[in-house]
Amino acid sequence: MRKRTLAQGSACLGRPPRELAGEVEERILNAARQVFLERGYEGASMDEIAEVARAGKPTIYARYPGKDALLVAVIAREVANRTPQGLECSAPRGATLEEHARAIGAALLETVLQPGKVGLLRLAIAEAPRFPEMAASVARMARERRIEQVASLLAEAAGAEGLDALPAFAPGQLATTARHFLDLVVLPLLIRALFGEELSSLRAEIGPHVAAAVNFFVAACREARPGQP
Q1: DSSP secondary structure, 173-211, as one string
Q2: Do 92 and 64 have their domain in common?
Q3: Which of 4-18, 69-83, 124-138, 188-202 reaches the highest mean pLDDT?
């Protein structure tokens, strides 16, 4: 029996519509993401990626020399695009630092605890021995982007409440404070997701988990003294 392809049951294959002609790169990466998530790295084939993308293999190879380069491109794009929807306006004007921090934490977790996001993270971790430079680069990029986002939002929230003079929110300390926030609020549920816990159950825990973690985080920020890590 012929192996079912991901494209069956969807749009007819063949020459892409004219309006999609300028979106070849995006279609290739979208197709590769879909196939990698469905088949894994070993099970994915360039033939199936080309079929799902509705692109010829020469078109794909002109951009990516092989399956490994496609995987790197898919994961790099995912990291670059990981901006939580509505994060900037997730807390009401005049909210306390705790309320702002809870809104930030909830938005981050709602973003990362999605099947596609977790699936790609698992794939990147599984293939790290094969592509160590890619794994190190992606991990560094993802962490730096998240720290930069959270640092900016925490600084804004602290300033709105007049707490920006606290040592935890000093310019030289802000990146460390944001890293602690991510470690306390986001990492515990994300690790459980990577180990296979049901995502719907984990998302149901977001509210109480974020509330408890943020209370601890904000208390530490308020009590921190200059020079403390």
Answers
A1: THHHHHHHHIIIIIHHHHHHHHTT--HHHHHHTHHHHHH
A2: no
A3: 188-202
